[in-house]
Design a protein that fits this description.
Layout: E1 5-9, H1 13-22, E2 29-33, H2 36-46, E3 50-53, H3 62-71, E4 80-84, H4 89-97, E5 102-105, H5 110-121
Parallel strand pairs: 1-2, 1-3, 3-4, 4-5
Helix pairs in contact: 2-3
């Protein structure tokens, strides 16, 4: 299945725009959420093919949002790629324990984002 819809989750409008620009060369529909609670609701309602999610957000953080998505039979199949300014090994390990499929550190390159789409989205 090719990636058709990508959910971008970040509380920074600048970071959302940067991710959207990185995905600009692909023919995908981009939907957004501004926090973890919104991400869970949008993912359940719209069933995106892939999620790029920030870690540190007000309210429900990215780790816990991912955990909830992976526990839900409707959304557990959706690859979650964390995009975070947290660069420590422990952050990557915690992301994996919460069900994250991959981790990209900010600042990221377009190539890093596109590689994750190819790898996890079967593009």
């Amino acid at each position: 299945m090719a990636v058709q819809t990508v959910l971008l989750v970040d509380d920074s409008a600048t970071d959302l725009q940067r991710l959207a620009l990185a995905l600009g060369s692909l023919n995908v529909t981009i939907i957004t959420a501004c926090d973890g609670d919104d991400a869970v609701n949008v993912a359940r309602a719209q069933q995106p093919d892939m999620i790029f999610m920030d870690v540190v957000m007000e309210g429900l953080d990215g780790y816990n949002a991912c955990r909830l998505l992976k526990l839900d039979s409707q959304t557990r199949h959706i690859p979650v790629i964390f995009v975070s300014a947290r660069t420590q090994r422990v952050d990557r390990m915690w992301a994996e324990r919460q069900g994250g499929d991959a981790y990209i550190c900010k600042p990221f390159t377009d190539g890093q984002v596109l590689e994750k789409v190819r790898r996890y989205g079967q593009l």
